[in-house]
């Protein structure tokens, strides 16, 4: 969007070079301004950045800031005294604003007295940093000055907020930390912290720390809160996140097993939700805090809370969470469950890790996790859990296009689910079996299973399952020549994904809609679908499906006679599939490349076809045989 525009991009408070590089413009027309507390030397070495070291505010500007904040609240203060106050604040904007707010809130106190108060606090908060950094000392002094002016209850809440897993939090999480059942009182105390510039309010009932102030709050908690009080506050807020996430799971993933939880403590009031959207909104807003809660629980030695939080979080993730965020905390939860020898919890976490690895196209790691889960569930005599593992192992084989093993695992899973009267999971496995038949090119078998699965999902009211099987139905209808019906089915599936606010499903099912649009000759619409799919899958870190979207774009450009552009997209898809070790889709991308090159460079086209045949040799299903025959015919006709 920005490639041909003259744009200034501002990247504020970057932590690492890795955060910056993906956002650098690809042309010389744009300028990027990065602010950071780190030197980010790699940007200067590799990316041609010019480093500007910013000092503190010049004295006139520091004094001007003090005057602006205190204007209208105090008599006009002496310029020399304001300069002295600015010096004590090291002329740092944050410290200056806090000091100015203190001065504005005491209009009848002489500035000399405020300066004396500030100097008296100079011994506080020494533990926050090492060395003799005068600026850090000055900021610590200002923080302490503001903190000592708080009421006892507000100061206690400020300290306890330093124990919160993340720098940003809501009103009710703060109340859980404080052990308060009075939401209105908690709001009053938070408002007083905002008024003292010790917190920032970011939205109604939503607050965040400046990172330096959070460090100060943590330090105060370590020094002023007894260990037993710190321990109790941390447990309360972790329990609050656990029980609220469990309530969210009931809407976001109702078919998944719930973790057996003891009732929430009396001084913890978790949220409940009245609708799907409210649960998703909360899960999206609190995602970073939930991830950090798992780490915090494990670091504090609360192993049971750690594995419970990790397990519930998998099922309470907002539907479009990036595939990269959960596996790290999933492993932390698994290690905690192993320390407690909680075998059922280990089985669940192996299962969810396997699913997470599949989303990241780490199929070997996924298979290992599912096989570990299967072994545990068989050891425990958990027949339903065993069936779920069989289904998920089948999905792993399906993703790797090992279609015969995939079908066998799905058939075993369907039988086991039916034995357990698990109608939802039996319908899910039926859908997976239908997908397997379709990908193998066995359309009659796929159509039979589709009818069974679609009826089952609709009887159960399972929208997600219905959308998924509609996707497969659309593919079968398209290949049988019923393009209008294919479009209707694909659009119905996409509407379900949009209603569920699930970007992962939307991105995947857009591929099917693009295929149907392309088959009908709606090329502009197909390009829009494929490009939206590619964008979503890049955001979700699913490189495989992103490459499938580029393959679709290449096919459309070839249909339009724009062969050079088609070649570019096919090659991009082939390169990604090669990186992922996906020989089937690499072969299809090479076939697309060859078809686009045929008119201009028949020799190069034949080389691509020959390479594609080498990859296709490993597959013997009807669809693979048909693709091979088509390529061989192309080679014969051009030789």
Structure description:
The protein has 639 residues and is mainly α. It is 70% helix and 4% strand. It has helices at residues 17-20, 41-46, 59-70, 79-88, 93-105, 111-120, 134-148, 152-161, 171-178, 183-195, 211-224, 227-252, 276-285, 287-299, 303-316, 327-339, 343-359, 363-380, 383-399, 403-419, 423-439, 443-460, 463-479, 483-499, 503-519, 523-539, 543-559, 563-580, 583-597, 602-616, 622-638; strands spanning 8-14, 31-36, 168-170, 200-203, 206-208. A 3-stranded antiparallel beta sheet has the order 3-5-4. It has a two-stranded parallel ribbon with strand order 1-2. Strand 1, helix 1 and strand 2 form a beta-alpha-beta unit. The longest helix has 26 residues, at 227-252. The chain is globular and about 95 Å long. The two termini are 43 Å apart. Residues 121-132 have low confidence and may be disordered. It comes from Streptomyces javensis. This is Tetratricopeptide repeat protein. Keywords: TPR repeat. TPR repeats lie at residues 547-580.
Note the gap between the termini. Answer: 43 Å
Kindly estimate the percentage of residues that lie in beta strands according to DSSP. Answer: under 5%
Overall 3D form: globular
Structural class: mainly alpha
Count of alpha and pi helical runs: 31
Uncertain runs are 121-132
* Strand order in the sheet with the most strands: 3-5-4
């Amino acid at each position: 969007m920005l490639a041909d525009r003259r744009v200034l991009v501002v990247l504020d408070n970057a932590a690492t070079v890795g955060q910056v590089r993906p956002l650098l413009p690809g042309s010389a027309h744009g300028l990027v301004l990065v602010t950071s507390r780190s030197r980010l030397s790699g940007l200067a070495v590799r990316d041609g950045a010019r480093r500007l070291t910013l000092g503190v505010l010049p004295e006139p500007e520091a004094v001007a800031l003090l005057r602006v904040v205190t204007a209208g609240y105090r008599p006009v203060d002496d310029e020399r005294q304001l300069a002295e106050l600015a010096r004590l604040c090291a002329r740092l904007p944050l410290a200056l604003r806090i000091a100015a707010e203190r001065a504005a809130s005491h209009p009848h106190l002489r500035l000399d007295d405020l300066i004396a108060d500030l100097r008296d606090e100079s011994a506080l908060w020494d533990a926050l940093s090492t060395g003799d950094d005068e600026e850090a000392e000055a900021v610590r002094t200002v923080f302490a000055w503001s903190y000592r002016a708080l009421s006892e209850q507000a100061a206690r809440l400020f300290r306890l907020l330093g124990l919160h897993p993340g720098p940003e939090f809501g009103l009710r999480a703060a109340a859980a930390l404080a052990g308060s059942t009075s939401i209105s009182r908690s709001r009053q105390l938070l408002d007083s912290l905002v008024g003292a510039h010790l917190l920032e309010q970011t939205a109604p009932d939503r607050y965040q720390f400046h990172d330096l102030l959070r460090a100060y709050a943590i330090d105060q908690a370590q020094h002023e809160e007894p260990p037993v009080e710190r321990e109790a506050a941390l447990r309360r807020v972790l329990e609050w996140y656990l029980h609220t996430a469990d309530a969210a799971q009931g809407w976001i993933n109702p078919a998944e097993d719930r973790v057996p939880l003891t009732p929430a403590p009396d001084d913890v009031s978790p949220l409940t939700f009245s609708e799907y959207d409210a649960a998703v909104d909360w899960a999206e807003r609190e995602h970073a805090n939930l991830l950090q809660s798992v780490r915090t629980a494990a670091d504090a030695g609360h192993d049971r809370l750690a594995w419970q939080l990790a397990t519930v979080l998998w099922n309470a993730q907002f539907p479009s969470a990036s595939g990269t965020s959960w596996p790290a905390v999933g492993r932390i939860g698994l290690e905690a469950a192993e320390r407690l020898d909680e075998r059922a919890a280990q089985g669940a976490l192996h299962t969810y890790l396997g699913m997470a690895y599949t989303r990241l196209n780490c199929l070997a790691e996924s298979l290992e996790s599912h096989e570990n889960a299967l072994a545990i569930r068989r050891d425990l005599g958990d027949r339903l859990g065993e069936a779920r593992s069989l289904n998920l192992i089948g999905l792993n084989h399906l993703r790797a296009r090992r279609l015969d093993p995939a079908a066998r695992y799905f058939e075993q899973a369907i039988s086991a689910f039916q034995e357990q009267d698990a109608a939802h999971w039996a319908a899910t496995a039926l859908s997976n079996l239908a997908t397997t038949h379709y990908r193998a090119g066995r359309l009659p078998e796929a159509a039979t299973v589709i009818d069974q699965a679609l009826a089952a999902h609709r009887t159960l009211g399972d929208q997600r399952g219905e959308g998924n099987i509609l996707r497969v139905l659309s593919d079968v209808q398209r290949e049988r020549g019923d393009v209008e019906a294919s479009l209707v089915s694909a659009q119905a599936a996409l509407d379900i994904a949009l209603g569920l606010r699930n970007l992962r499903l939307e991105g995947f099912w857009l591929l099917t809609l693009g295929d149907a649009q392309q088959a009908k000759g709606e090329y502009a619409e197909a390009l829009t679908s494929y490009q939206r799919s590619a964008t979503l899958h890049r955001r979700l870190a699913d490189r495989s499906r992103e490459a499938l979207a580029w393959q679709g774009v290449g096919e459309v450009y070839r249909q339009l006679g724009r062969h050079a552009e088609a070649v570019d997209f096919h090659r991009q898809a082939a390169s990604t599939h090669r990186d992922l070790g996906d020989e089937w889709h690499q072969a299809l991308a090479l076939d697309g490349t060859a078809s686009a090159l045929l008119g201009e460079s028949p020799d190069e086209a034949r080389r691509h076809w020959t390479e594609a045949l080498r990859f296709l040799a490993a597959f013997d299903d009807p669809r693979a045989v048909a693709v091979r025959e088509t390529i061989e015919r192309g080679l014969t006709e051009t030789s």
